[in-house]
Design a protein that fits this description.
370 residues, alpha+beta, Phosphorylase Kinase, domain 1, Aminoglycoside 3'-phosphotransferase, Chain: A, domain 2, 2 domains, five-stranded antiparallel sheet, three-stranded antiparallel sheet, 44% helix, 14% strand, globular, binds 2-acetamido-2-deoxy-1-O-phosphono-alpha-D-glucopyranose, binds magnesium ion
Length: 370
């Protein structure tokens, strides 16, 4: 690693002399490191990432999307007179030749991103941090509302096409290449019994009530950097999946992660549930940011987004388990099966709480719209 990172420093003309690296363990797809360089007394940090090219088949397309989106946000923040633009926009570095990657001898794609100084991120967040995360993802959406979506590449086709995710699960179960189907019959049965949810947003879209917008599509709350001292939201990170999508996907994915009372791979399923207060805190931060730009149907669909994203992710984890664990990084045996079980436990709890979720949502939405 050391030699490679030194080479990357050179290729990207990073300031200072390379002194070391740390691994950032969060993330199920790419490999992320933070490197430190030193100039005189001054330490500098950069994020270095190896792109998972099995998932992101066209790394140049993600680079293009990230550059366009971050430039747009940067411009907006400057127009608003924001004093923290540097810490609110994570930039992609260019190499000596003007490209965005260092391609190593074995064909790995490496990129360099700016580091957000004096910041912190959370995978388990307090209520006030969750409200701030809601504000950050809502602001992200708002700042991109006039972004020309046709300029974006679809980096992962059908990423949140829940129907296709279910179809892939069915196909994996039918092929059963690793003979794992017998072990997951209960999970399969549950998911297929909930397949009706998968088409809901497509139907609303076809009725003209749910437009595509530029969405983040991976809104785990650890994708927001907060100020180390004040917990004020700074940058939204991990922009590789920014693509046209539905608002309820971003809202739902955020809540299914952040308001889960357990980790995404908790062994004790009785610990998994949706914390309604956390849900409410996130909504309280998110909704005021997007309220003016979304339709009544989009607002009303937010709670459905939470269960749909839990079901979709359960289907994705289970599909990967059946297919031999080729997509998500696995840190232990049957990791994907465990993750699928957790999302299923969560989906069951969310379904029971949907009426209350709607009732609480109404608190943030003026009567005129809801
Ligand atoms: C992956 O790598 P990470 O944690 O940012 C996945 C998301 C899932 C998430 C589940 C490109 O995101 O869709 O929700 O794992 N990203 C991709 O933890 O598939
Ligand atoms: Mg991600």
């Amino acid at each position: 690693m050391e030699a490679l990172f030194r080479l990357i420093c050179e290729e990207f003309k990073l300031k200072g002399e390379y002194v070391g690296y740390d691994i950032i363990k969060a993330g199920n797809i790419n490999d992320t490191y933070v490197i430190t360089t030193i100039i005189g007394e001054c330490k500098k940090k950069y994020i270095i990432q190896r792109i998972n090219t099995a998932v992101f088949k066209e790394p140049k397309q993600i680079a293009s999307n990230v550059q366009l989106v971050t430039s747009h946000i940067e411009k907006k923040l400057i127009e608003q007179g924001d004093k923290e633009v540097k810490r609110k926009v994570v930039r992609i570095y260019k190499n000596k030749k003007g490209g965005c990657f260092y391609i190593s001898e074995n064909g790995d794609y490496w990129r360099v991103l700016s580091y957000v100084y004096n910041s912190v991120n959370y995978s388990q967040a307090t209520n006030s941090v969750l409200k701030a995360a809601g504000e950050a993802f809502g602001t992200f959406q708002r700042l991109l509302q006039d972004f020309p979506a046709e300029k974006l590449y679809t980096t992962i086709p059908d990423f949140h096409n829940t129907e296709k995710r279910f179809a892939a699960l069915n196909e994996a179960a039918q092929r059963d290449p690793y003979g794992r189907k017998q072990e997951v019959l209960a999970e399969l049965e549950y998911l297929l019994s909930r397949e009706e949810y998968a088409s809901r947003f497509r139907v609303l879209h076809e009725m003209g009530e749910m437009p595509y917008r530029v969405t983040h599509n991976d809104t785990k709350c650890n994708n927001v950097m907060f100020d180390l001292n004040t917990d004020a939201p700074l940058a939204v990170i991990d922009l590789d999946t920014v693509m046209p999508g539905f608002v309820a996907h971003d809202f739902g994915d955020a809540v299914r992660f952040a308001a889960n009372t357990a980790e995404e791979d908790e062994e004790d399923l009785s610990k998994v549930s949706l914390d309604l207060n956390k849900y409410e805190c996130f909504a309280c931060g998110f909704i005021p940011q997007v309220f003016d730009m979304v339709t009544k149907t989009e607002l009303e669909s937010l709670p459905d987004g939470v269960i749909i994203m839990a079901l979709e992710l359960a289907a994705r984890f289970l599909t990967d388990y059946l297919n031999g664990d080729t997509y998500f990084k696995c840190k232990k045996p049957k990791h994907n099966l465990l993750r699928a079980k957790c999302q299923i436990a969560l989906a069951k709890d969310i379904e029971a709480k949907l009426p209350e979720m709607h009732a609480r949502l109404a608190r943030f939405v003026p009567v005129a719209k809801y």
